[in-house]
Design a protein that fits this description.
Ten copies of one chain form a homodecamer.
Chain A: E1 9-11, E2 18-30, E3 37-47, E4 56-58, H1 60-68, H2 77-92, E5 96-103, E6 109-118, H3 122-125
Antiparallel strand pairs in A: 1-4, 2-3, 3-5, 5-6
Chain lengths: ~130, ~130, ~130, ~130, ~130, ~130, ~130, ~130, ~130, ~130
């Protein structure tokens, strides 16, 4: 089941602004209603707090293991998205953060959910 | 025929802003003029009202059944678009909502209709 | 329901061999098990009998109306494919004929069915 | 030759703002200089005036016939674009309107012309 | 109307076998039934007879003018294809020749017609 | 774990030859070496035995459930492919059968495995 | 060598604002350092001055000949871009103008240069 | 190892604003953790200072050699990005500069890092 | 002008059969009729004679310089193709050789010419 | 430098014929002439000998390490291809084997080399 403790961080390497995007193309969880697996792409986009203010970045492998912990969890699209947003926001306290989940079609309908924390600049919102 | 009562909603899972996009790639209705079937892609994009204000989200399967209720309805492109916009706005009372219908070509011309409710942020209007 | 009588033919215009391919991208029928609509692309590929032997071609608009007659029919993928193959073979008595149905995914699996009549040359079988 | 009288309109179905885009992929006219045919894609994008103010939409088939009336007309790219803009603006008196013509290459150069009427919102100008 | 006399040929430049393919992406004629324009791509693929046997190739600009002579002709898909095949075969007497016409969709169905003259090697038939 | 008993079959609908292709785009199992999940596309391509000889087809939903039974199984690419080939061959006794597994990249290398049963016609082997 | 005198203009056809884009996909010049040819795509995007103020547009064929005059010129990417910008600005005195040159890769690096004249609206700058 | 001294500059050719983009598609360095090579695309986007203020541009071949100097360096994604940003900023003192590194997937996750110097106009930030 | 003497060869590295394909995407020559430049992609595909029989391969840079020697030559598509075939066949005496030239469109028609020397295996002819 | 000893094999899992394809998208070596890095995609396609005859398959991670051992080797395209073919043939003694190397362009020319061992079935040769 989703395991916040898997997330590890390292100090942000710079005070100069930069933006990090991780695109995890092999996310899978389970639909709590039907018991069938769901598949999607999870994108994490964020600006870390400056290193001088103790800013941190999530370590890539720990992020992968964290996402894998959803593998057998029964959880809806919206809940996955909000859960990841909340966990990453808590772990990193970034300037701002955007989570986008893009799900494979079910019954001819595919869904994209975007959740944010902090003030995401307008040019990133439609990412 | 289009059946508003098929739409079911569930409470928005969060007060933090998020945006939901459902892309229904297998929409079909009937042209009232020629009697031939029309085919298109219907996109619903919206920001639910916050959960603390009683915000709700449309349930995905009920949205699918609602769209299927247009299958044998004779109805023009513009009317489909406005009807779905009005029905979803009434069902969810979201912060804002955008309906885009993207129709397969007829006679060498293909059409895209966008209708909105509430104040859609500019970066979403061209979605 | 599928209506063979809708198919109309016209005399093949030539004795020289030629091959005709019609790709109908907006086919829809209904799954007899779930009642949900199915969507697919139906390809008809055939070589008409020579005009000097009474060869005929199916008229395009009548083919469209024939395909539309499956719209509200509950019928499986394999049955659709065999039915169209049999009806077209009966209507045209072509040299050979290939029907390919290519269905939108359901539950993460998409299907392609190919059925033939007569001796289809090897280079067309994988079309 | 281009025939304004072919354009027919119907009352805008709503007072709520919506935007209509028609993409005509099979436009052809004749180059007045060389006599050779030109081919292009004509896009009409507009917001009708509200129905309560007598707003109207162009009827799709009449728009197709109107575009077909350029088939044997000797006329330059810029003139086609301005002519369609002026005719549609006169016929519909929309809130705003954008005509984009996207021409197949000639001599290794392809051209795109955009002409507007009224105040087109910035997010549409690059459509 | 289609004008055979527009076709001009020049001597094949070599006795060594070679194959020529011309892809005319801007073909248009008129549907004799509806009066609406048809649009398609016409491909000519052939092996000229050897120059030592008087083999010839069709001159490219004359081929273009020949194709343009169908612009206002009311003629069906199959007839266009057979007509071009017959005219080119007569003009060039090539080793073999394949004409493929690939038409824009009408009513959700698009068509591809292939007609041959002589013994087209199997690896070209599905071109 | 992989469960052969999930596979259900139904009688082949016809004696006329036809070919069935199911493309399962959401297959996942677990690498027995690293414990990390693997993701791939599994294609089943086969010609059922004729109905008059007791030929059968695998039922689509049972095939989906069968593939889902590999979800938490630690198993190598080659073993997955051979296992599915053997299970399907045993369940259907088809004329011939091809299993192709196409795996997402690992460490910059992606792999495709093809296993067959019976005499697969040459034009399908490279499918 | 680049020949400004090849550029010819014609009066802008309208006072209503419109934007013209010419995309020349077959530009070639010579690298002054290596003597090897460079290949790129040159895009000209501009808004002509209004016709009532003497606004003009560059004639398409003259623009083609002008670009061809760089064929055997040894000239760097940046210099090509600035030269074309300056020549076109001088010839047309447009409201604003953007030149983009997009070069084929050399040694694994490809380059895009954009130069402007006048106040190019923000939504065009990233064209 | 990364070698700043490889970077050479030449005077900016103009005072008129222009923007230069170099896309290096064959960047490789080494992961300091696993010792395995990393592969990515490095994009440099900048506006040089005006030539009248001593503005300079980086010479393309020297930029290539500089990037090649990372080939056997063990260095993380974020450090590569910041290092290149800092080195180029120091070498050119441009108006503004954006470095984007787009990395091939590792374990199903691919990453994109963007770092800036100076005030990058908003329409470029999402480049 | 085309300069055969630019072609240099090196001994084939092996007796085991192998096939070499060079795709030159930036070929340009001049149309002898109009004086306008032509652009195309030249593909050379061949199997060298075995090294034990004195087989040789064309050196890549010398092939590039050879192709550049057509830059200002007025020469037709068919002649370019036959000329390159003859020159390469003379220089390398390979087992077999295929030259394919794929030209950018002119007046809406694009052309592909293939010329061979020796017995090209069937599966390569349609390359 | 290329290190044959890195290759490890495991027993082929079956006597039934199957075909394995590994596509290594991140190959790099060094040009011995210029000292610049080369980048390409290496495809290994083979049919292992049957397990009852002691057939083996190359282990995927060892294949990756083997390919990485070319990273700083100065070696030509043809030599890379023959070397990998020889090493893999020696390590696995497969029924047949095909190595394809597909190189990023240099100076506008990109190259594809294919080398084989044993009797590769015709339908794979053009893979």
């Amino acid at each position: 089941m989703p395991d916040f403790s898997l997330l590890e961080c390292f100090p942000a390497p710079s005070d100069t602004p930069f933006v990090i995007e991780h695109i995890a193309e092999e996310f899978t969880s389970v639909c709590p209603k039907t018991g069938h697996p769901d598949f999607g792409v999870v994108t994490l986009l964020y600006e870390p707090a400056p290193s001088s203010e103790g800013g941190v970045c999530v370590e890539l492998k720990s992020f992968k293991l964290y996402l894998q912990s959803f593998r057998n969890e029964g959880i809806f699209y919206e809940a996955v998205t909000n859960r990841i947003r909340d966990d990453l926001a808590k772990a990193m306290k970034p300037r701002w953060l955007l989570i986008k989940t893009d799900w494979k079609g079910r019954g001819g309908i595919r869904s994209i959910i975007r959740a944010t924390q902090g003030t995401v600049p307008a040019h990133w919102l439609h990412a």
